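TA notes. Do not distribute before section.
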Amino acid sequence: MEVTPISTPPALAVSAVPAPGSTQAFSLGGRTLAQLTYSSTGTVPTSVTARYYSGTNPPAPFAAGARYANAYFTFSNDNADGSGYTYQPTLTYDPASLGTIASEGAQQISQRSADNSGYDTYATTVNPAPVRTLVGPSQFTRLGLLAISDQAAPLPVELVRFEAVRQGSDVVLSWTTATELANKEFEVQVSLDGQSFRALGLVAGAGNSATPRSYSFTDREAGKSGLRYYRLRQLDQQGTATFSPVRTVLFDAPAGLLVAWPNPYQQTVQLRLVLPQATAAATLTLLDAVGRQVLNQELGPLPAGASQPALEPTFFSSLPTGVYLLRLATAAGVQTLRLIKE
């Protein structure tokens, strides 16, 4: 049921006039209900009036399938001035006003569009009891009606392609985005074990884009060998990071590559083998700290490239804590790895 207010609620008390880099707090009866934190750039409005509509559904039309809280805020630019500024809203919410929203954690801040044709929803941080606030991103560019909904917020970047291709001793990484929202940059990362990644370089993002964008980066590091893992760390203008799927590229290794993770481990451990060429036989042995053999496992034929042999989990979980030495023997040679059981 939509409830229409009998009258316009009173303006909320305001703590200060707007100023670049400052925060305005809006309160009712001594309780802060909303805050606007302005960026340090641009010209902010000279006067802002806020009102809180409690127990009232925001005006339609709504996003299909979305549910809205029974409360909303309006922020008016009294003198219709200011330009080039952004702000970050913080809204206090009342659990009793969630309406049909399933949970507090599902709440998002939605802003009514400038032409009143619908709502735009933003990724929101929910601070539950005792604070009970919703914090939006620092990318709002106009004042208006802010509602609370469970509409899914758009992802900062829609990545539709990410490839890593070996070209001689280099690796060319290329990717394409369908859309971008407040996208600051991509950090290209590499790993030698698929677990610990480090940065290779940065590629600037397009900011906001509704059309496909293509990017590329070349890994020219010298001395590549074995299997290299690549991923993208996308960072938006609010400092939120998301990660791409991982891509792998194989370089020749003299006798192969043996990787264990996690290392150190506590209960279970996984192995990944990377061989420059297929082998008819491979033997895995495990030695304890004094050189005694505690495991000898025939792995059988293995393909070129990466493989993950099946290990007996109860064996590794039952080992005493300590330092061990794993050895992988193939026709090409022997690879060793220090393994720690905690």
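Switch to the second chain here.
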Amino acid sequence: MKNKTLTQTIAILSATTIFSCAAVATENTNHKITSGSFGVAWIDEDGNIQAAQTVEPDSVLLRADTQIAKDSPLAEYKYKNVPFKPYISVLKTPSGKNILRDSPHDHKHHHALMFALAVNGVNFWEEDRSERGKQITTALTSTVSGVSSELRWIDVKNKTLLKESRVINATANQDATFLDWQSTLKALDEPAEFDKSAHHYYGLGLRFEQSMDRIGRFFNSAGKPGEIFRGDERLTLCRWMAYTSKLHGEPVTVAIFGRPENPVPTLVFTMGEAGKVFAYMGISLNFHREPRMLKANESLTFRFRVAVWDGEVSPETVEKAYQDYVNQ
């Protein structure tokens, strides 16, 4: 009975104390998460303090500065205990509804909101075989609303093909949630090639929550559908693309922007209009058609924004949000 009581005590405190410590460790100050850890303790039935194993957080909760006192974060960034790549696992509307789906059974490598490419013929997007590339976080600094991290893109032999500096920030106003993603990719002493082994959807990808499938519609700044690439998969040159659907019966709208100074024009990949398999949206870097070579120590920077609204919004609303982004 004594062991059972102690086990129950540990379980209860693990659900509270660990979460509380993790929140403090990952939200409140600038720090190097990957170089640190924190301990958890509990009080046994005799009133003695007992030490548990050291715990390291595997994700960071992001809050807007105006929501520090609120319970619900805007987003969550997972960077540890991930099979192949770090990603945004949760992104919420202003009312707190999560729009993302992580690793569904039909495409296990669809990790909610993620960024991946092919480098020197190594595939960092799919995860179906052991020789796929991995993005390894080597350092991460967090603030209340964002993370800055350093990553190594490695092949199966642990050779670093590319280094990345990644900065992600969440903001919000009363109407929308915004998530900014910046990736700077740098070659090392050898060139890094983004070659034609890339698929047409490689880049920044977003998989929607399951209830948003088959009932939504896409619309964009160009005012017309893009080219059909395969099946119902389209590639559209536009300033922004938006998807409006219902999330558990309530309307939501999600838009994706690329900054005009990015190294490639904003080419949006979409699939899954109403009635199709599932809805997906992302920014393709178009390396399947126009390969790119990074010379030794050369770098490229890509900047994107995802905007999320409760309700169905107009093209004019999305355009204003885009203009606010590019003019900030």
